[in-house]
What does this fold into?
Amino acid sequence: MTRISCPVLSKKITTAAQAAEHISPGDNVGMSGFTGCGYPKEVPGALAERMKSAHSAGEEFTIGLLTGASTAQELDGVLAEAEGVHLRAPFNTDPSMRRAINSGDVEYIDTHLSHLAQQVWFGYFGKLDGAVVEVAAVLPNGLLVPGSSVGNNKTWLDQADKVILEVNEWHPREYEGFHDVYYGTKLPPHRNPIQILEPTQRIGDPYLRVDPDKVVAVVRTNAPDRDNSFSPVDDKSHAMAEYLIDFLRHEVSAGRMPKNLLPIQSGIGNVANAVLEGLKESEFEHLHSYTEVIQDNLLGLLDSGKLDSISATAFSLSRPVAEHFNANAESYKGRILLRTQEMSNHPEIVRRLGIIAINGMVEADIYGHVNSTHITGSKMMNGIGGSGDFARNAFLNFFVSPSTAKDGSISSIVPMASHVDHTEHDVHVLVTEQGIADLRGTSPVTRAKRIIDNCAHPDYRERLHDYLDRAIAESPNAAHTPHILSEALSWHTRFLEDGHM
Ligand code: 0RQ
It folds into this structure.
C-alpha cells in the first residue's frame, strides 16, 4: 500500500537533495526527532552536503536548528560536522554537536522541553522559516500519520513557512491511531484547562495537519531510527533500583499512594532502565506511565502485564526491540498513546495526575540542589530535557546517580553544585548505590547530614561532614544554609587541576 496517497502531496515527491535546496543560509528550521526516534533521515544529510560546498566556495551557510529533543548522527551529527548550525535547542546527545556547543561554535539554548513550542509561537527565535518532519504516512485527504515521535511537530508544521515531509516506510503503517495531537491550545490570556484526567485519555486528533500549499517537498525514505541500546543493568543500578522500589512500598504503606502507585515518568539512562526492570520483578500491578520516552524496559513492563498503559511523546528503543514493536504494532494499540511534547510534559497535567518522576543527575550538593546538565560548571552534557517539567510538578520525584563518577575521582555529592537545574525547593529524594535520602520536610542542615550519611561514597563522606561542620561553625549568623564560599567549589577546581576531587 502506498504511504503517500494524497494526490496534491504526491505531486511533490522528490529527492532529498532537491528538497534540501529549499533551506537557505540563516533559516530557522524546526526538525522532527525525539530521543533518537522520528527524526528525518535523509534531508539533513543532503543539507550538510550543500553547506560543505558553500563553505568550500567561501560562503556562509548555517541554520538555527530546533527539534523535539535529541536526534542522531544523520541529523545533529552531520550538521555539526558540516559546521552548519549556529543555534540549537532544546536537547542534544550527539557527540559532534556537543563538541560544537562546548567549543562555542553553536549557541545552545537549554530549555524545558514543554516550553519550546510556545517560545516559537511567541517568536523568541524569530520566525520559523522551515520544517523538516518525518511521518509514517500521508492520507488521501492530506492528513499525516505521525511516526515514532510527535515532539514539537505540530508546532513546526503550524509555524513554518515551508514544510518538507519525509515519509519513512520503516515505521509500521499501523501507527495510525497511536497518536493524540491536541489542537485546542490557546495562548495566554485565553488558555483553558487541559482535560487530561487519566494518563491515556484522548483529547486530540490521531493526525497531524499541514497546509498543503506550504509543503515544498515530500521525500520517501526507508531507514531505521537510532539504535538506543543500554548496557545491561550493573550492580550499582540494581542497588539504586532496589532502594527506590522499597521506598515506593513504604509510600504505599504510609497511605500516600494507591497500591498500583501513581503514573510513573522515567528518564533515560541505565538507572531508569534498572528501575523499570526492578518493577517487573516486583509485586506492583496495574501500573501506568505518563512519561516522555518509552525505552525498552517500559515496553517490557507493558509486555509483562505489570503496566496497563503508557502516555509519552516518543519511543527510544534498541533496534531489536524496535523491530519487535514494528512487527507487533497492532497489538499495542490502545495501550500506548503518543502526544505532543507540550502535553506529555505539561506541568498542569503532571501536577494533576500526581506523577512519580525518576531522573538521572550529574551531581547534587549537600543541600539538595541538583545539577543535571553541566560538568564542572561549564561543560554541557545533554541538557535539562524534560527533567524539570516533571520534577518540579511531580507528586514525588527521585534524582538518581552513582555516588562517584570516573572511577571514583569525582564525587556526585559535593559541597556546592557547580550548576543548578533543580533547586532544593523542588528535589524530594536522592538515590545513589549507597542509599536513599528522603529530603521532604527537612531544613537545609538536617538535609545535608542525611544526604552525606545516606548517599555520599564512604571515600568522600568524612570530608563532606568536615566541610559542613566548619561551615556551621563559621556561620553563627547565617546558620540556615551554612557555606564557606571560598571553599564551596574547591572540589571542582581540585578536579580540574589534579584530575581528582
Ligand atoms: O560519562 O560514559 O563518559 O563515563 O556522565 O553518566 O552515570 O552513565 O548516567 O546515562 O543516566 O546520565 C544526568 C547525564 C546521567 C542524564 C545524565 C558522566 C559519567 C558518564 C553519564 P562516561 P551515567 P546516565 C528524560 C529526562 C538530564 C535530562 C533528563 C541526563 C556520563 O540523566 O542527561 O533527565 N539528564 N531528561 O561518567 C563528571 C560528574 C558526573 C559525570 C556523571 N559528576 N562529573 N562526569 N558523569 N556524573 C529524557 C529527556 O528529557 C529527553
The chain has a mean pLDDT of 97.
